[in-house]
């Protein structure tokens, strides 16, 4: 197992180093290391480092959130975006931006993060209640998608009433981008990320039992209800953090845990959490690299890119699920 | 060890009563009744510690006062509906049997590993350890499920229809194994089953949910015809 982790870590390092060193315009590779130009170094620190940093955080956090959801719902098709948690964050952030603008208040990063987390938490709990009544994996997926569509519509209606500045701020955020994070925000993001990841790893033991289902886990001594509350809180914190700083990013949380299970062939969540984090981070950094490669031709939105990579895998999982059923 | 006094069994309505019953260690008990009579309900009530009326006690302690973790050390249920997952190996599944004994990390101690290894050898599962739980045959899955229950080291083991879906030789093998476990490891093994002839042959005690009186009664020896009459009213 540790050989596989080493491999995943090596892949992550290689992709990250290539992305950091990828030339901008006519510059050579790793130009920031060789140049004596102070401005080039500053550009690197101000723009490139935060972008790669948030890509790592987003990939790590969303993949772990997806794994937690999939285990607790016993549904490999679960993920924060597809089940409407991201939509919940979307709605709460819209309300926060609009409310702050109306009251003439400055929006703090922490405020956006808290509202995004609360949005995800509310919809996470709603999904938990619905999942207790719906056994079909595909039906739950459809409910989540409907919930998401419903909430996005409410958000759009709210925005119709908003002032131009709020609409602009929200539209930029809503497109999803890894370039909105500044170096000043890194400490806050790091702190919240480490808390979320730490809490997720503390859930390793009950997660191992929960894969068997609610009743078998209770027989093994797991307080199922309490554990699910904890899981939804951690998922909301991680998904809310990413949504607050990057906007809604889809598919990563759904596909990465499935890829990890296929590659690692284990149900031990200590390994699955670590592997999901590493591979999720690699996938997101790879997206940054692809954006840079295509930059001279067009600007690829991160959301479209993750959907392009994720949709075929989701389709494959759906077909596999239908065939097994 | 497990004592029932004036208990009603049923979630929303009473399905049957257990006036008085005491089950002891070393017994291999069959629970027989018609479809929907409440065999699984009794097992669920025991596992969840939920009894609307009466008193259930284990070694003198009131069953409903036990905490979840204490119950996990007293009782286990072999899940007949578990079909396995592609990514869940047999070894990982068996290790889950030690779940209630490990610390917050879930890591097995040397002692836990010894317990797991002991039952792997007893049930001859060495060759299956690296295999995915989704690729096991019905008989193998039953043996693996029983091994996990044994690894949990509870004095009470419940099995809901352990011989369903098995062919004739495997049914014999499983029943013989369960009788052996009850006798040799000093545990009380209770099965809910429709294989009445096997139950008469292998079990030391038969519990029948009587169709007419809606009362659970215990029999040490009973003929096939008597059992059919009492359980199914035929």
From TrEMBL, chain A:
UniProt-annotated location(s): Cell membrane
Membrane topology: Multi-pass membrane protein
Segments traversing the membrane: 6-24, 45-69, 81-98, 110-132, 138-160, 181-203, 231-260, 272-294, 300-319
SUPFAM superfamilies: ABC transporter involved in vitamin B12 uptake, BtuC (SSF81345)
A GO BP entry: siderophore-iron import into cell
Keywords tagged on the record: Cell membrane, Membrane, Transmembrane, Transmembrane helix, Transport
UniProt entry tagged with the keyword Ribonucleoprotein: no
GO molecular function: transmembrane transporter activity
Gene3D superfamilies: ABC transporter involved in vitamin B12 uptake, BtuC
Major location category of this protein: membrane
InterPro entries named in the record: ABC_BtuC-like, ABC_transptr_permease_BtuC
Domain of life: Bacteria
Homology family: Belongs to the binding-protein-dependent transport system permease family. FecCD subfamily.
PANTHER family listed in its UniProt record: FERRIC ENTEROBACTIN TRANSPORT SYSTEM PERMEASE PROTEIN, TRANSPORT SYSTEM PERMEASE PROTEIN
Record's protein name: Iron ABC transporter permease
UniProt lineage: Bacteria, Pseudomonadati, Bacteroidota, Flavobacteriia, Flavobacteriales
Automatic annotation (TrEMBL), chain B:
One example GO MF annotation: ATP binding
Membrane topology: Peripheral membrane protein
InterPro entries given in the database record: AAA+_ATPase, ABC_transporter-like_ATP-bd, ABC_transpr_CbiO/EcfA_su, P-loop_NTPase, Siderophore_ABC-ATPase
GO biological process: iron ion transport; transmembrane transport
GO CC annotations on file: plasma membrane
Localization: Cell membrane
Transmembrane domains' residue ranges: none
Domain ABC transporter: 2-231
Assigned keywords, A-Z: ATP-binding, Cell membrane, Ion transport, Iron, Iron transport, Membrane, Nucleotide-binding, Transport
SUPFAM superfamilies, per the entry: P-loop containing nucleoside triphosphate hydrolases
Official protein name in the record: ABC transporter ATP-binding protein
Organism the protein comes from: Fluviicola chungangensis
């Amino acid at each position: 197992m540790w050989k596989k982790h080493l491999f995943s870590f090596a892949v992550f390092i290689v992709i990250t180093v290539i992305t950091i060193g990828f030339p901008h315009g006519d510059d050579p590779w790793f130009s920031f290391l060789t140049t004596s130009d102070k401005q080039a170094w500053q550009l690197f620190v101000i723009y490139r480092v935060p972008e790669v940093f948030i890509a790592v955080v987003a990939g790590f956090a969303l993949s772990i959130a997806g794994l937690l959801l999939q285990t607790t719902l016993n549904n490999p098709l679960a993920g924060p975006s597809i089940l409407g948690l991201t939509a919940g964050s979307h709605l709460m952030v819209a309300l926060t931006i609009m409310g702050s603008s109306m009251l003439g208040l400055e929006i703090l990063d922490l405020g956006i993060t808290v509202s995004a987390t609360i949005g995800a938490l509310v919809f996470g709990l709603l999904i938990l209640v619905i999942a207790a009544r719906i056994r079909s994996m595909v039906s739950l997926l459809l409910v989540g998608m409907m919930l998401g569509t419903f909430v996005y519509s409410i958000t759009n209606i709210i925005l119709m009433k908003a002032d131009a500045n709020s609409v602009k701020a929200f539209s930029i955020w809503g497109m999803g981008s890894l370039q909105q994070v500044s170096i000043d925000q890194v400490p806050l993001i790091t702190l919240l990320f480490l808390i979320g990841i730490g809490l997720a790893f503390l859930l390793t033991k009950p997660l191992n039992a929960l894969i068997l289902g609610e009743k078998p886990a209770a027989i093994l001594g797991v307080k199922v209800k309490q554990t699910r509350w904890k899981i939804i809180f951690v998922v909301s914190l991680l998904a809310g953090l990413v949504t607050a700083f990057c906007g809604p990013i889809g598919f990563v949380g759904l596909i990465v845990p499935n890829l990890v299970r296929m590659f690692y062939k284990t149900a031990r969540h200590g390994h699955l959490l670590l592997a999901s984090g590493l591979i999720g981070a690699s996938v997101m950094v790879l997206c940054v690299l692809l954006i840079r490669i295509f930059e001279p031709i067009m600007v690829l939105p991160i959301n479209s890119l993750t959907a392009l990579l994720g949709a075929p895998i989701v389709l494959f999982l759906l077909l596999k699920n239908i065939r097994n059923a | 060890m497990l004592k029932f006094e004036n208990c009603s069994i049923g979630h929303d309505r009473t399905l049957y009563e257990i006036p008085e019953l005491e089950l002891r260690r070393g017994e291999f008990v069959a629970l027989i009744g018609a479809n929907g009579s409440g065999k699984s309900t009794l097992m669920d009530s025991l596992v969840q510690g939920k009894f609307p009326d009466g008193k259930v006690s284990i070694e003198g302690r009131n069953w409903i006062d036990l905490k979840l973790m204490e119950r996990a050390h007293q009782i286990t249920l072999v899940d007949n509906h578990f079909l396995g997952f592609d990514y869940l190996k047999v070894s990982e599944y068996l290790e889950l049997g030690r779940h209630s004994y490990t610390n917050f990390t879930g890591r097995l101690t040397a002692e836990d590993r010894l317990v797991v290894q002991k039952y792997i050898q007893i049930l001859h599962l060495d060759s299956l350890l690296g295999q995915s739980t989704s690729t096991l045959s019905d008989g193998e899955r039953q043996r693996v499920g029983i091994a996990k229950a044994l690894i949990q080291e509870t004095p009470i083991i419940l099995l809901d229809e352990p011989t369903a879906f098995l062919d004739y030789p495997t049914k014999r093998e499983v029943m013989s194994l369960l009788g052996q476990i009850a006798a040799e490891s000093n545990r009380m093994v209770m099965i809910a089953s429709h294989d009445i002839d096997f139950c008469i042959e292998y079990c030391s005690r038969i519990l029948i949910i009587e169709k007419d009186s809606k009362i659970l009664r215990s029999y040490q020896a009973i003929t096939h015809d008597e059992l059919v009459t009492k359980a199914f009213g035929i």
